[in-house]
Design goal:
The chain is of the alpha/beta class. It has helices at about 1-25, 75-85, 90-115, 115-130, 130-140, 145-165, 165-185, 185-200, 205-210, 210-225, 225-235, 240-245, 250-265, 285-300, 310-320, 325-345, 355, 365-380, 385-410, 420-430, 445-450, 465, 470-485, 500-510, and strands spanning about 55, 60-65, 70, 435-440, 460, 485-490, 515-525, 530-540. Helix 21 (about 445-450) links the parallel strand 4 (about 435-440) and strand 5.
């Protein structure tokens, strides 16, 4: 009976960690505007469709790949969600937040099988209070939420197969890992890292369970999961690999620094939010939640770094205190992380952003949890109280940084990529009846496609100006764009531009063709900063 009560208490505590993660995420859901990459998956749901490949099925075909390395799994998941609940901010962000909750719970189950209840509960709470794990999951511009869910689920099922020899678990585990490859082919970093780590750290265990039948089950299940990606690479011969396997080692130091700031939680300050020096009209706390958040931030002296990086360093020092499977599990996580990060670090245009580095999670939490749990057992009776105090300190550290993000967002607003002006822009466009809406800068089109549910006649207008030369087709495109009176154009104001100078080039081009710009509206964010310009061209 005592054993049952103990198990129930641990499970209830793990569920409390999941609830904490969920409630913390809910406090962020409505704070920021929709970033372009966050809404990228809508290109597989709404017009104008933006997919790299459709499988020929029926009249329209099945959308399979959004980009050469990004599948449409998220698009398929969200299609019925949007049909039922619309495309509001909660309908878009809540499902991925719930995916994050599920990944926290599954991580608890994984650690429990690997290293026992003590490590499982420690790691579960550590992951649930990690600032960047929460933010990258909630806003999911990577996208990373499904990656974490699928990979942790696959690991848990494969471990269950090893412990119980159930072939169904082997099949489902490999299927989910294959599905992760279709969702985002960059999953190869983690899958190859974990695969090589298993071979290096658990060679005897691998040999012991390997049979021809099990290899066939694994390959078949993985292939079924990754089948859309495989079909795409057959139709477009190895397009995923040709387009994403160039190497660049020029910024290894910078990528290393990014990894460390991801670990301590500071990497997104100034990227998600505007900083104080950029804000002339800061918002005062409004309501009990904002007021409490601001007071906690002031009391803690506005912390921007958690203690997680120090905890990881201490865990490495204490790792030799672990024994048997626990020590090998730590080595497995370290080797897998090293191999995965090396791949992203030497890949061109990868590894230098938080949404790449965070793919290593939750392996750092695995190392910390197992190492600290093993060390606590050496303290005997004092072990559990010492571990509880350490966990409380790390949790508070992470939550204070998360709270600081919220305070900065509320006070100063979202950055140019996360501006809440996108909602006002979408609302304004409902009041006009354009023939076409030309998006003259990055960061506009995908968000508007989602918010309008594909009802706006959106057109990419930047291409003729970001290329070094214009051909006849592009000149014809521009002439038609500026000559039609029902065509309207959207650009960022100078302070919010991504492609600097593109708008000026376009206006100059139109002037040379005999047209002048007529501004229809300037759309500000909630802090009064002018973000978007909506205009049309009229004859001079």
């Amino acid at each position: 009976m005592n054993s049952i009560s103990k198990i129930l208490n641990f499970r209830l505590s793990a569920l409390a960690a999941c609830l904490l993660f969920f409630l913390t995420g809910c406090a962020f859901v409505s704070l920021l505007g929709i970033q372009n990459d966050e809404s990228l998956f809508a290109g597989g749901i709404f017009k104008p469709y933006a997919v790299a490949y459709k499988y020929p099925w029926g009249r329209a075909g099945l959308p399979v790949m959004l980009m050469s390395y990004l599948g449409t799994l998220k698009s398929w998941i969200y299609r019925p969600i949007f049909q039922e609940f619309g495309t509001g901010i909660w309908a878009m962000r809540l499902p991925m937040l719930l995916a994050g909750v599920a990944s926290v719970w599954l991580f608890y189950l994984l650690l429990r099988r690997v290293a026992g209840f003590r490590a499982a509960l420690f790691g579960c709470f550590l992951l649930a209070t990690d600032s960047l794990y929460l933010l990258t999951t909630c806003f999911d511009w990577g996208p990373v939420a499904l990656q974490h869910l699928l990979i942790v689920s696959g690991m848990l099922l494969l471990l269950g197969f090893y412990q119980h020899r159930r072939h169904l678990w082997l099949a489902w585990g490999c299927f989910l890992l294959g599905l992760a490859m279709w969702d985002k082919a960059l999953a190869i970093w983690m899958l190859s890292g974990m695969g090589l780590a298993l071979i290096l750290v658990f060679p005897k265990q691998i040999v012991r369970v390997t049979t021809l039948r099990r290899v066939a089950i694994s390959v078949l299940a993985f292939t079924i999961g990754a089948l859309p990606l495989i079909v795409y690479n057959i139709a477009k011969p190895l397009a995923t690999f040709h387009g994403n396997t160039s190497w660049d080692t020029s910024d290894l130091a910078g990528k290393g620094r990014l990894l460390s700031t991801t670990a301590d939680g500071s990497a997104l300050f100034g990227w998600l939010n505007m900083e104080g020096w950029q804000t002339h009209n800061p918002h005062l706390p409004h309501g009990p939640l904002d007021t409490a958040s601001a007071r906690i931030s002031a009391f803690a002296r506005h912390p921007r770094r958690s203690l997680s990086l120090y905890a990881f360093a201490l865990a490495l020092l204490l790792a030799p205190l672990a024994r048997g499977h626990a020590l090998r599990a730590i080595l497995f996580a370290l080797v897998a992380m090293a191999i995965a990060w090396t791949q992203m670090a030497i890949t061109a245009n990868a590894g230098g952003s938080v949404h790449h580095a965070i793919l290593l999670w939750p392996l750092p939490q695995m190392v910390i949890a197992i190492s600290f749990a093993a060390a606590s057992r050496r303290l005997r009776r004092a072990g559990i109280p010492a571990l509880a105090v350490l966990l409380a300190v790390l949790m508070v550290s992470g939550l204070l940084v998360t709270n600081e993000y919220r305070c900065e967002i509320v006070r100063n607003g979202g950055s140019r990529g996360w501006t809440d002006a996108i909602f006002r822009l979408a609302g304004y466009l409902k009041t006009v009846s354009p023939g076409s809406v030309f998006c003259e800068d990055w960061g506009i089109m995908d968000s508007l496609r989602l918010l309008s549910r594909g009802k706006l006649p959106l057109v990419v207008g930047t291409d003729p100006f970001i290329r070094p030369a214009r051909n006849d087709a592009e000149r014809e495109f521009l002439a038609n764009a500026i000559s039609e009176p029902d065509h309207i154009f959207i650009n960022h104001t100078k302070d919010f531009e991504f492609f600097e100078g593109v708008n000026d080039q376009f206006v100059k081009y139109a002037a040379n063709a005999g047209y002048r710009r007529e501004v229809m509206a300037v759309i500000p964010d909630s802090h009064g900063r002018p973000v978007y310009e909506v205009y049309r061209f009229v004859s001079q």
